[in-house]
Amino acid sequence: MTPDCTLVIRTPAELIAIVPFLLGYHPRDSLAVVGLVGERVEFTVCHDLPPPDWTDPEAKGAAATVADAVARQRSRAVVIIGYGSLNRVTPAALRCAQAVQTRQIDVLDVLRVADGRWWSFLCAGRQCCPPEGTPCLPADSVIAAEATFRGQVALPSRQELTAQVAAVGGAERAEMRRATERARRRFTDLLADDLTAERYGRLVKQAGQAALRLAEKRYRTGGTLSPDETAWLGVLLVDRSVEDYALDRADTQEWRIRLWTDVLRRVEPAYVAPPACLLGYTAWQAGRGALARVAVDRALAEEPQHQLAALLHNVLGHGLAPHMVRPSRKLRRAG
What we know:
- Helix content is 54%, strand content 12%.
- The chain is α+β, with helices and mostly antiparallel strands.
- Helix 6 (170-190) crosses helix 8 and helix 7 (197-220) crosses helix 10 (254-266).
- InterPro entries: DUF4192.
């Protein structure tokens, strides 16, 4: 899902060319729904094609779920694009179109893309939509260049997007393990005195705020954190007050996405959920829904009961736009 990307789409070929940039990756065996207002793209949602052995009720249920998410965007019209073979795309695309139409949303076109060509299910004109399909625009088309200029990226596959939030390995992982042990000892030393709950909370919150401000300053100016600084921030983020403080400061600047991506990839598994959620929330606000999804999936894989991860999972699953869930503390209270 993306907010208004300000790109103007004039033809089906241009729309097909821009969808990978809206998603962040080139879809395969997938169904994308693009919401439009006039010639302006408002949002994009994408999901895997149903497996061939799905029963009709299951397939209809999946189509209804997608249609509900589209309806929540309050878009007036959509284009549905299926990526894959004719026998896989046809039932999924047509079910989705029917479900969307029952929610009083216009379906401008239903397209299929495969092997560098596209077809329309709704157009029978041989000149504009020949039976052999119409060639897709080249990778260096004007619309793709415009998307790249605006900072959009289209990775070769969703797997490559997932790899962007995967844990680092090798020597860097070994160094982070050592740094995490030092951070744990530092945390124990911080609380070495017989503390009241009030003083404990104050000390952890102060240390967390200082660590976060250091990280923000470093990344804002193009730098990074050392292994010890990363591990220390990761340990402190486990505290709810520190996580909330970071959540309240989240915005759409690219350096914040870089910050939370680095922290997520480098911390040990026990500390993954908070930075994964912060990356997910920041990416969602920035209109990078696919990145938000893989980040939240990583959080839930490591900590299935994490409250903020579960909330973000629901927000993304229901297709809610960022302006519907602000300020960030409302997101927390909504659970």
